[in-house]
Amino acid sequence: RPHILWFRRDLRLADNPALAQAAAGGQPLIPLYILDDSAGGPLGGAQRWWLHHSLAALDAALRRLGSALVLRRGPAADVLERVAEETGADTVHWNRLYDPAAIARDTALKAALTTRGITVASFNAALLFEPWTIRNQSGRPFKVFTPFWKACLAAPAPDAPLPAPPRLAPASLPAGERLDEWALRPRAPDWAAGFAPCWQPGEAGAGARLGDFLDGAVGRYKAARDRPDLAATSRLSPHLAFGEIGPRQVWHAVHHASGREPAAAPGAAQFLAEIGWREFSYHLLFHQPQMPERPLRAEFAAFPWAADGDGLAAWRRGLTGYPIVDAGMRELWQTGWMHNRVRMIAASFLVKDLLVPWQRGEAWFRETLLDADVASNAASWQWVAGCGADAAPYFRIFNPVLQGEKFDPEGHYIRRFVPELAPLPAAALHRPWAQADLARRCGVTIGRDYPAPIIDHGFARRRALAALATLKQDS
Ligand code: FAD
Predict the structure, then answer these.
(1) Residues in CB range of 260: below 8 A, 6 or more apart
(2) Could you tell me which of 234, 224, 231, 425 has the C-alpha nearest to residue 323?
(3) Over the range 175-211, which residues count as b (16 or more CB within 10 Å of their CB) and which as e?
(4) Which residues are listed for FAD binding in this entry (predicted)?
(5) Gap between the terminal Cα atoms of the chain
(6) What is the tens place of the pLDDT at every residue in 365-414?
(7) Per the residue annotation, which of 182, 191, 305, 333 is the catalytic one?
(8) 3-state DSSP call for residue 121?
(9) Ramachandran class of 455: left when φ > 0, alpha when ψ lies in -120 to 50, beta otherwise
(10) Which structural domains are found in the chain, ordered by start?
(11) Residue owning the nearest CA to atom 22 of ligand 1
C-alpha cells in the first residue's frame, strides 16, 4: 500500500529523514503539501510569495525523480484522511515541527490517524538537537545562550546529512490543485516585484547560497557581519525558514569547508554560533510556548506601553525621520529581508523610542519578512525589548544616529534604500535635520523631501527609562 509523505517546513529532498525513510521502503509514495491556514494562522504575505516559488521548485525536483507534488487545501486532518481514503495509503511520514500550534495539531492528528489504522512516522529535520536533549547540570533547559551553545558544541555531533533518494517508486497520484489557484503571489499592485532579483527560492537556491558564502564572505564574517552596507552574511534565513536546507547540512558543510575545525576559523565559528541562536530560539519556544505572545520576564506584562498608532504607521512605512531605521524598514518592504543589525536598531526604535508593544513589531515582521520564523522572531523581539531570556538589559537603548554612523559609515546602505537623502555627504546623512541648511544646499528639504524626526531620541530615551522605573517600583 502507498505511503504519504507530508511536506511542511522541510521543502527539500536532501537530508530529509521522512523522505529518506519513506523512499527506502520501496512502496509507492505520495508527496503531499497541504495549505492549512487554520494551524498557527495564515502565512504572512511575503512568505506566501516565497511558498509559491518553493513549491514550484520542489515539484520540479520531484518530477526529476519520477514523481510530483500533490497540492491540497484545508484543515490538515481532513485532507490527510481524504487522501488516505482515496489512495489506500496506510502510513504517513512527516518531519516534526516544534512550535506550540503545530505540536498541538500534530499530536491530535497522530492520535486520530492511529485510531483509523494509519501509521505515523515522524523525524527531526529542523534542528541540530532535539530540544529535550540539551540541558544544564541540574537537568533543566538553558535560559542563557552562551552555556547553551557550549553544551551543544560538547554534545555528540549532529548526524551527517542524508543524501536525496536517487528515484522514487512510481505511484498513481491522486488529483491535486493547481499552484496558481492558490493565488499566493500578489496581484496588482505587485509589492513583491523587488523580491525576485534578490532570491532563488528552493533547494538549489539554498545550496548555491551556502556554497557562495562558504567560498567567500565567511572569512570576514566575524568582522563584517554587523555592516549592512557590505554583503557579509549568508542570507540563508528564508531558505532555513522553509526547510529548503537544514541546520545539519549547514553544520557539516561549515566543518568541511573549515577543515573540520571551525573553532580555529573565527568566521566559521561565529557563523555556526548564529545557527546556534536559531537553535536556541527553538529550544526556548519548545520549553516556553508562551514566547510569541507573552514576555518571558513576567514583570514586563505590566509595562506602560503607549498607544502610538501614528508612530507605528511611520515606522512601518520607513518615514520616522531616522535614516538608518527608515533604510531598514524600506529594505524589508522592497526585498523581504532586513540586515540583522538594522533589525535590532529598528526594533529598538519601535519598542523604546515609540513605546509600541513589541508584539506589534513582531506581527509586522511576520507579515513582511521572507524568513519570518515563529521562534527566531519572537525570541529576537523579546531580546530587543529586554523582556526575553538572556535579553539585552532594558536600559541599553540603541541610539539610531550613533548606530548608523558606526555600522554604515559611508552611508551606502542609507543611500540605497532612502534615495531622497542620496545627495547628502556622509557626515550629514545620519542626522539630516541637524544640518538642514546643508541639506537644502544639496537639494533636500527636511520636512518636505524627507521627514523631520517623529520623536526626539533624547526625550524618548528618558521616557523609556521612566517607564522602566515604574515597573521596578511595581515589582
Ligand atoms: P547570517 O548572519 O548569515 O546567520 C546564519 C543563520 O543563523 C541565519 O540564516 C539564521 O537562521 C540564524 N541566525 C542568525 N542570527 C540569528 C538570531 N539573532 N536569532 C536567530 N537565528 C539567527 N531570523 C529569522 O530567521 N526569522 C525571523 O523572523 C527573525 N526575526 C528577527 C527579529 C528581530 C527584531 C531581530 C533583531 C532579529 C530577527 N531574526 C530573525 C534574526 C536575524 O536577524 C536573521 O536570522 C538574520 O538577519 C538572517 O540573515 P542571514 O541569513 O544573512 O544571517
Answers:
(1) none
(2) 425
(3) ebeebeeeebbeeeeeebeebeeebebbbebbbebbe
(4) 221, 233-237, 271, 371-373
(5) 61
(6) 999 999 999 999 999 999 999 999 777 787 889 999 999 999 999 999 99
(7) 305
(8) strand
(9) beta
(10) 3-125 (3.40.50.620), 127-158+201-287 (1.25.40.80), 298-474 (1.10.579.10)
(11) 278
Q: Is 466 helix (H, G, I), strand (E, B) or coil?
A: helix
* pLDDT tens digits, one per residue of 8-43: 999 999 999 999 999 998 999 999 999 998 877 789
Q: Which amino acid is at 350?
A: L
Residue 397 is which amino acid?
I
Distance, CA of 81 to CA of 199 (rounded, Å): 36
The pLDDT value recorded for residue 439 is 96
In whole angstroms, give the CA distance from residue 452 to residue 393.
29
Copy the grid coordinates of residue 320: 520616522
Please give the pLDDT value at position 136. Answer: 95
Q: Is the CB of 277 under 6 A from ligand 1?
A: yes
Is 383 one of the catalytic residues?
no
| Residue 14 Cβ < 6 Å to ligand 1 | no
Ligand 1 pocket, residue 53 CB under 6 Å: no
Report the C-alpha gap between 56 and 73 in whole angstroms.
Answer: 16
Query: Contact, 280 vs 379, CB < 8 A?
Result: yes
How many angstroms separate the Cα of 91 from the Cα of each of 10, 13, 107, 123, 376?
A: 18, 19, 16, 14, 32
Helix, strand, coil percentages, rounded to 5, for the chain: 50, 5, 45
Distance (Å, whole) CA 415 – CA 424 = 9
Q: Would you state the pLDDT for residue 368?
A: 98
Helix 45-64 to helix 203-215 angle (10° resolution) is 100
Whether 381 is a known active-site residue: answer yes
φ/ψ region of 221 (left if φ > 0, alpha if ψ in -120 to 50, else beta) reads: alpha
C-alpha cell at 260: 573540520
Q: Are the C-beta atoms of 418 and 444 separated by less than 8 Å?
A: no
How far apart, in whole angstroms, are the C-alpha atoms of residue 310 and residue 361? Answer: 14
Residue 376 Cβ inside 6 Å of ligand 1? The answer reads: yes
Of 242, 186, 197, which Cα lies nearest the Cα of 372?
242
pLDDT in tens, 224-258: 999 999 999 999 999 999 999 999 999 999 999 98
